[in-house]
Predict the structure of Helicase-related protein.
Amino acid sequence: MADQEVLYVLLEELKPGLRIDGLMPAEVVTLIAAQWHGANAVELTYKTAAGGLDQRVVFRKDEDKLSVAHSGSRAFDASAGDFKLVAEAQRISLAGLFDPMLAVATSDVQPLPHQIRAVYGELIPRTPLRFLLADDPGAGKTIMAGLYIKELLLRDDVKQCLIVAPGGLVDQWQDELFFKFGLRFDLLTNQLIDSQLNLNVFETNPLLIARMDQLSRNEHLKAQLQETEWDLIVVDEAHRMGAHYFGGKVEKTKRFQLGEMLREITRHLLLMTATPHSGKEEDFQLFLTLLDRDRFEGRQKRSADVSGIMRRMIKEDLLTFEGRKLFPERIAETVPYTLTALEYDLYEDVTHYVREGMNRADRIGGKRKNTVGFALTVLQRRLASSPEAIYKSLVRRTERLERKKQEILNGTAGESMPTIDLADFDNDDFSAEEIEEAEEGLLDAATAAQTVEELNVELTELRALVKTAQRVREAGTDRKWAELSALLRDHALVTDANGRPRKLIVFTEHRDTLQYLQGKIGSLLGKPDAVKAIHGGVRRAERRQITEEFTKNRDVQILLATDAAGEGLNLQAAHLMVNYDLPWNPNRIEQRFGRIHRIGQEEVCRLWNLVASNTREGEVFTRLLEKLDQMRETYGGQVFDVLGEAFAETPLRDLLLDAIQYGEQPDVRDRMFDVIDSTVGDGLKGLLDERALASEHLSDADLCALRAAMDEARARRLQPHYIESTFRDAFTRLGGRIVKREQGRYEIANVPQHVRSAGNGPIATKYDRVTFDLSHVHPDDRARADLLAPGHPLHDAVMDEIIRSFGGVLNQGTVLVSATLEEPHLLVGVVEEVADATGESVARRFAYAYVDSHGTVHPAGPAPYLDCAAAPNGAATGVACGLPWLVDAEDKATSWIIANRLPDYLAEVQPRRLAELTKTRELVTKRLTSERERLLLDAAGASEKERKGEKPKESSESLQRKAVELDVRLRKRLALLDQQQLMSTKPPQILTAALVLSVSDLPS
């Protein structure tokens, strides 16, 4: 087409529908309208190639810059090699629009059926997303979130993503996202904040992980965060963002207030927790307002409809793709023992001291009462833990109170001790590490004694207790240790059938006990190095190292851990566990068991609970564990999953405190046992039955459909060899050098500066090893290689830069030859999109298609140009010039796609989205209307009281104002739903084109 003349256009000849070159750099636009202003200026309204509308005034002097575009301005004279390279780079960059599970193909994970269904069946179809993922512990929610995040990044639906997690889990999140998904997220550290002193740290770091309390407690950071907008926010352990009804008022924690703010600044919001329901329906619905304020407005006791907004799957229902149970059985066994006479004397003496201290605290009242009570219960639990723990605790407490007495005498006594609310601990509002810190800080200092005389009385008691504890310690008759050592000597537990040592985890609540056991177990085994220990004081990097040793090193047999160390750890290398100390919060029992009962566990998980049966607390625990064992025969391991919810009305802590203070009274004891029987009997049964109804199940048909979806995804998947050949060619063109080393692995000695500058994430100057195949990422004992695939910053930067540098060839087009076609066709790459009336994209897809001389469009496969050859030099020119239908082929293709393909695409996307929006409309209308009516009714009652001269709890004016506000909210929400329900297709966007000839079209 080199001899074809350029057709310049006179301004008077401009007509709607004409394709014009010269209005925008390197782009052809379609004229919509032309409006003259005098004789020498015309206002042009036009549509860009991307489908957007724009306007420009053109003057007579610019007339010679405009020309009629030929077949979309394609000259078809680009090098076929260049065209194939850039077209392939473009296809790979848009892979998320045609590979239905691209994140699976480019991540180092083997997702399971329930994970695939969650990500591709529940999360991705919902736009915008508001969802609570509440699968059981150990089901791999982090894997699901990672797949979802990566999928949206690859589909260009997400550019800014914030992950909010408890402090103890942020490092794990960063590691998981990097090692499993190749995603580089920054941690919001003080160093990062300080390095960007005059900038908004949230605006300059688009992929960020932040600690929940770092955000909730720092007003400056919250103010910065509130100024930003995010595409996606993920909150892990989201149940900690709790609010509670107290009387008639809502008490919002700082974390809940953070959750409310996050709801307003993001398009997609994903909450994750294995314990969404504390057992109090009103509080649960308050929590759900973080997802949809309108749908869960107000206080209602009846169960909420959570369809479409929450998914919960039970461990026992999870299956592999072959239909086998994913999780093995869980068995718990109680190991009762009785204290020796000397141990029992110490128990009685300390219990008397604790009880008297509580009584004194009761007389003080207020928040100080709770703080002293908390410290004394810690002392009681250390008494039950080990002789070492109680001895050292009593010594430290004595020393601390001696110092306090001296401070009072010297007139240097400091501020009063901090106050604490025990309910916060039972509501899981604090992490195990925070609780451990609070216990260490308050145990030695909190006392009801306020004068020197009162302190002298308490110190006299303490010194006597220290002597008794020292006698027990020196006697060496620790009955609890005797039970544990017997378990550790059991041959069946020490080694497996092949004689290999088994691994076992021992949980304790206290560091003194942990260090005591480390020495005792090391001596028993004769191998001190076989025992590792983690507690809240161990730095996170060291925790990871210890966990790696325990998991991978067969010589490390025993892991000792406190709850603070247990959060977030994956310890399925072991299947045996001992609760040396039983936690007073029943949620912790499942959380501990969940460390070993996780995906990848193939052995039956066994738990031994050590209980001193001749103590007041021991009687409560014994009764509880007996009832649990009875229920387990019917419901299996599920009984552990809802134990915390069962004690929502009467916390286990309250029963244990009653046992300590009044346990010798028969009526109190009987009442406690009645509560346990009803809670763990009927209460647990009701919770499990309700849970079974609320949870989802995978049927055989579901598994079959998921297998088919995986097979289809594999068929459409971008193969690693395509990514490899494109990257190597593109990287070399851009001045980079990549050298082959071991099989499937390469070295990159230098990444050019202009490539690094093109990236959206951190790109190194060189890479020791990279690969394009997951199987070569970490083979044998070789160093880990970076997986270069969509999502990796270097890979994406190279694709973007090659398109930027050589993208003109996509507009020029080229001429190819196909052995399978019988006549010339135009090959086009097309993006199709469905959007709603708010302008939000609902669905997008990318595909190649052939256009024949009649404008009819046929699917062309994922990359048909790869199977085509370049036309011989100059041979195609005459053929192309002799195809007049090429001039408007793209217009005809666009019309054909609009008339024939887009209606089907809309019909495919619309139904599910409409069903969700219709359901939301119904629930929101019902909830807000009922709340408004309740407020109006209360307003009428308040008005009547005011008329009588009485003062109501809330004025009629305030209640009426709230009712009006709800009415306004309802109207706004319904208007938004109207816009979201109105879906339509955008005009198809043709990104590139090539002329493809048959062999017979070439001149002989």
